[in-house]
């Protein structure tokens, strides 16, 4: 019995050491994400140019695109995949030049499932387990990765890797791995803050689109 206990003690000790290290790494990751959130909230506005890619070898899918977004609070103007989306704080305006069509709808940004560009910079605050991942050197910048695993079994994402610039505390890139084998990557090419904006930056002007069909959904 004593012999068995002597054999078990190192295993138990190793378990507690491993558990302690894991807890410390999780807290380090949480602390870094808190710094990112605080930094985002400190700016009057943010302008981002980004690259988007989606791949899924099983479905022979390989898609790439570029976009840009300007945000101030929850208001934004997003240009992505040939569509301009404006949110003025009350309504969303989807402008599709190819079809010369505009759809207008109400939007409650307080809804739990509501997705806005500003929330994409702070989405990680709830619903994930965190762990400290690798540190990479990207063209002279130190990018620290944090691994996020959704706590909900209904989430279609298997895991997410968030790359954070160690010096600026800005998000460099985000990689989502889906349960279906898909991989979505958003890489920030330019991150500017507190830019001089027009007072009409987030205002939809119907007069600019005289020949467009306007579809009011609400």
From TrEMBL:
The keyword Signal applies. Gene3D superfamilies: Lipoprotein localisation LolA/LolB/LppX (2.50.20.10). Keywords: Lipoprotein, Signal. It comes from the Bacteria. InterPro entries: LolA/LolB/LppX (IPR029046), OM_lipoprot_carrier_LolA-like (IPR004564). This is Outer membrane lipoprotein-sorting protein. It holds the Pfam family LolA. Residues 1-23 form the signal peptide. SUPFAM superfamilies: Prokaryotic lipoproteins and lipoprotein localization factors.
């Amino acid at each position: 019995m004593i012999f068995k206990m002597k054999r078990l003690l190192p295993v138990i000790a190793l378990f507690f050491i491993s558990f302690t290290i894991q807890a410390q790494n999780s807290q380090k990751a949480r602390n870094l994400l808190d710094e990112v959130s605080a930094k985002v909230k400190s700016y009057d506005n943010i302008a981002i140019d980004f690259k988007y890619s989606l791949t899924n070898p099983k479905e022979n899918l390989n898609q790439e695109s570029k976009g840009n977004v300007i945000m101030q609070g929850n208001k934004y103007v997003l240009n992505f995949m040939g569509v301009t989306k404006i949110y003025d704080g009350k309504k969303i305006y989807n402008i599709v030049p190819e079809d010369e069509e505009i759809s207008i709808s109400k939007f409650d940004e307080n809804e739990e499932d509501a997705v806005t560009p500003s929330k994409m910079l702070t989405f990680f605050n709830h619903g994930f387990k965190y762990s400290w991942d690798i540190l990479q050197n990207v063209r002279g910048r130190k990018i620290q990765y944090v691994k996020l695993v959704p706590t909900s079994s209904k989430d279609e994402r298997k895991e997410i890797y968030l790359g954070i610039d160690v010096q600026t505390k800005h998000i460099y890139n985000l990689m989502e791995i889906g349960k279906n084998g898909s991989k979505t990557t958003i890489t920030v090419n330019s991150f500017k803050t507190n830019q001089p904006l027009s007072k009409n930056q987030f205002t939809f002007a119907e007069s600019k689109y005289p020949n467009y069909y306007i579809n009011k959904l609400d």
